[in-house]
Design a protein that fits this description.
This protein is about 25% helix and about 35% strand. The protein is α+β, with helices and mostly antiparallel strands. It has two domains: about 120 residues, Probable inorganic polyphosphate/atp-NAD kinase, domain 1 (Rossmann fold, 3-Layer(aba) Sandwich); about 180 residues, Tumour Suppressor Smad4, CATH 2.60.200. It has a 15-stranded mixed β-sheet that branches. Helix 6 packs antiparallel against helix 7. The chain is globular.
């Protein structure tokens, strides 16, 4: 039987999240956060590329079973993968929480609890088992890799926009410091304007799709970058992935989708397809961007699956 509450807590603080602004954000709320957590909670601020895998393994050996990621979506994804890999994909006895110090903070959406306007996911009384998505992909040179994701994954326009947002140009760097949602919108529009559809073969639920892929969203949460949201019924613990596809779209169609997502509407639009599955395979005719919780990689083929109830999320 699972314990009713965690035994020991640890907080991993990524000081470089949100282009380094996370450090000041953490300093402003650190005392308030620790007042909400049990006495003896361990805190480790770090700056990538500092490696913290050994520290997390030490914490696990010391009996830590509740891990809080203070940072952005990439920080939460990094911690998730450490926990899933160390436990052999069986982290059901662990809790994962979050403090949104990043740009979009999809992991802590819907944002219901805050400390000084920063979203948090700390409440053990609202904790529940949650599914974890898994991507297994092959690169253009034949290398195989795998990684887990908490909130969502994507290919096509969204993945390209995430890459642009992460790496930035002068306009994005300017907007990030002043208007995060504006930087996200700029990245999305610029990616749409330069987008080329991708010939892809998809297989799920005993069906195959041969399409010109404009965008693919693989969801465990309907909330994506900034204020954009899908009207997908997927939940954190329903044992499925929410699949939302845009096919053979041009600039006008993709801008229409972007506007719809700003209003929380997607399903039923022309040139779209939505369904639930536990297993989706994608093969592309050229290398393509693959985004997992905001982190962007390159692939030629990828398989998305779901690990039901693989970890417990605080404040669900």
């Amino acid at each position: 039987m699972s314990p009713a509450a965690p035994s020991r807590y640890a907080v991993l603080v990524n000081l470089t999240a949100n282009d380094g602004r996370a450090a000041a954000r953490w300093d402003s709320i650190a005392r308030a956060v620790l007042e909400r957590l049990p006495t003896g909670t361990m805190v480790h601020p770090f700056r990538p590329p500092e490696e913290v895998e050994g520290l997390v393994q030490t914490w696990l050996k010391q009996g830590v079973d509740a891990f809080i990621s203070a940072g952005g979506d990439g920080s939460a994804n990094y911690l998730l993968n450490l926990l899933m890999n160390h436990t052999g994909q069986h982290a059901e006895q662990l809790w994962l929480g979050g403090i949104g110090l990043g740009s979009s903070n999809d992991f802590v959406k819907p944002k219901e609890h805050f400390i000084q306007d920063l979203p948090i996911r700390l409440d053990v009384e609202q904790a529940a088992p949650a599914d974890v998505g898994k991507a297994e992909w092959q690169t253009e040179n034949g290398e195989t890799h795998s990684r887990y994701f908490l909130a969502n994954a994507s290919m096509g326009v969204t993945a390209n926009a995430n890459w642009l947002f992460n790496h930035g140009d002068a306009a994005i760097r300017f907007l990030k410091k002043r208007w995060t949602d504006g930087a996200i919108l700029y990245a999305a529009l610029r990616s749409i304007l330069g987008h080329r559809n991708l010939h892809a073969l998809l297989a799920a639920n005993d069906r195959e799709y041969d399409i010109q892929l404009s965008n693919l969203a693989v969801l465990k949460s309907p909330y994506v970058s900034g204020s954009f949201c899908y009207d997908d019924p997927v939940t954190r613990n329903d044992g499925t992935l929410g699949i939302n596809i845009c096919a053979d779209m041009g600039v006008a169609g993709l801008i229409g989708v972007l506007y719809g997502l700003s209003k929380g509407r997607f399903r039923g639009r022309p040139h779209t397809l939505s369904f639930a599955t536990r297993d989706l395979r994608v093969h592309t005719t050229r290398a393509a961007a693959l985004e997992l919780d905001g982190e962007v990689l390159q692939c030629r083929s990828v398989r998305f699956t779901v690990c039901p109830g693989a970890i417990r999320l605080l404040g669900l």
